[in-house]
Amino acid sequence: MTNGPVASILAVDCGSTATKAILLEVVDGRYRFVAQSQVPSTGNAPWRDITIGVHQAVRQMTEITGRPILSDDSQLIMPERRGGQGIDMLVATVSASPPLRVAIAGLSKSVSLASARRAARATYCRLVEQIALDESSRRSDAQRLQAVQSARPDVILLVGGTDGGAAKPVVDMARLMALAVQLEAERPPMIYAGNTELRSQIAGLLGEQVEFQAVDNVRPTLAEENLGPLQIELEQIFRQSIMPRLPGLDLLKQWSAGDVVPAAHGLGYVIRYLDQLDDKPRYGVLGIDIGSTSTTIAAARNGRFSLTVMTELGMGASIGQLLRQTSVEKITRWLPQDVPPEQVQHLVMNKELRPWTVPQTEQDLLIEQAAAREVISLALAEARGGWPLRERRGSPVLNEIVGSGGILRHAPTPGHAALMLLDAVQPAFWTSRLVLDKTGALPTLGALATVQPVAAAQMLEQGGLIELGSVISPVGVARYGAPVLSFKVKSALGTYEGDVKFGTLERIIVPLGTQAVLELRPTRRFDLGMGPGKGVKVVAWGGAVGIIIDARGRPLVWPEKKEARQEYLRRWLQELGAWSSELPDIVDLLGDL
Description:
- The protein is of the alpha/beta class.
- The chain contains 17 helices and 24 strands.
- It has an eight-stranded mixed β-sheet, with helices on both faces. It has a five-stranded mixed β-sheet with strand order 3-2-1-4-10, with helices on both faces.
- A hairpin with a 2-residue loop joins strand 2 (about 20-25) and strand 3.
- The chain is globular, with a radius of gyration of 25 Å.
């Protein structure tokens, strides 16, 4: 890194499946995207060194741009030389490290344990065991001891009791966890985040045989949640004890300006920045990054923020967990044709074993995209408990939805990506921006913001995100084919009017960078945020898909008959430019829905 002006930046993301590199350069006084490279990751056998993948990505970058970045002895050239060789700065994110294995013990599954779980989800933690006094299984103490020992946690969280509240049950649980730890050869540390009046008593109970840390109560009152101190403690343990297990991390740190940032936190920095762009009150920004081994949900609204990292849900090496958390039927309901359950199971198992493979047929592609909808839905369900977003009938009210991850980035058309996001999120009312991280750069731009914020901001303004369009989602329910709203659109292309029926998607072509004025008049059963039946006039910008009116109900209402459902699925794909086959007329099916 140089202490002088930073004219060129290499941003690197080391994932579990792929290593990506992006080159930024100052052109006419502003940072611009120059090129991107991607290679398979090398953190696992036989390489066991993430920097090998970084070297390979840099060499590929040189082949693309003709710009030497490595010296003859394969060292990074920093700072940039007068002849244009090398770079001035490197920033890096990682998501390839193993997660922090966490066991939680406490009093109430729906109160203190739920708060501790939300705190743990804010970084790369895997919840390997949860023990509550009110658990339905009513396990004996011996069974609980065995469960904790079998889980082999890296850290144990002890929670429970409001400040000044329950004492004896918390102390009893602490004794049990102390015994579980003392029976282990390698004793995991214990973090206490319960009734603050019991700190000294519990510290004395554990003695010097257990590494102990106390932080503020995650649930000081039944109505109040305080996750920050526990989140900070867990993140520190992850960064100091777990990330260093990633082979090659020390060398990557030497190259990097600032810290090597966990990819989920990089995404979080960007979502918080997007939430702060407007001075006017905002409904919020939702960021979704669906990776190979984990899925991250970042939500921000008016300065409030939540981050949820699902380390057991992804579209590659961890996709097998999907079938343990949901059914094959929930995946196949998104498919526009019959697919045997065994075919879905085989595709999931093959993807788990070979996460770098790509779909070979359109049917395989649609199965993967159906699985992605369920992965995102499960992650959103976990995130909902603590996010700052408003909801209406279980659907979030948002200004922006930001999608990232290979399954979205590599979708054959923008319509595929847009429909996956709409189906999984099901936003309510009016979403002014539906955007896609087409380069996969968002996490690294978040890392860049910690050391070169101007560069990160300029990249987000100048093509860091691809605008898919705007979305109108009336809230209400009717029979399929019933009128939902009428609309008039005025743009540079002219004026267009139409009616939208329940169960359909309407795509209005408004090109990227073009502004349109929409007049929307819902029927009395449907609400656009102003009240049932009340019209609204909004200004929208076009995008790669355009303006989408989603009249499928909130929550989404499925046709009862399988044949009708599959026909509608095909029509939804076709409307967004993601299905090319000729479709039969389905007017006759409406009476059967």
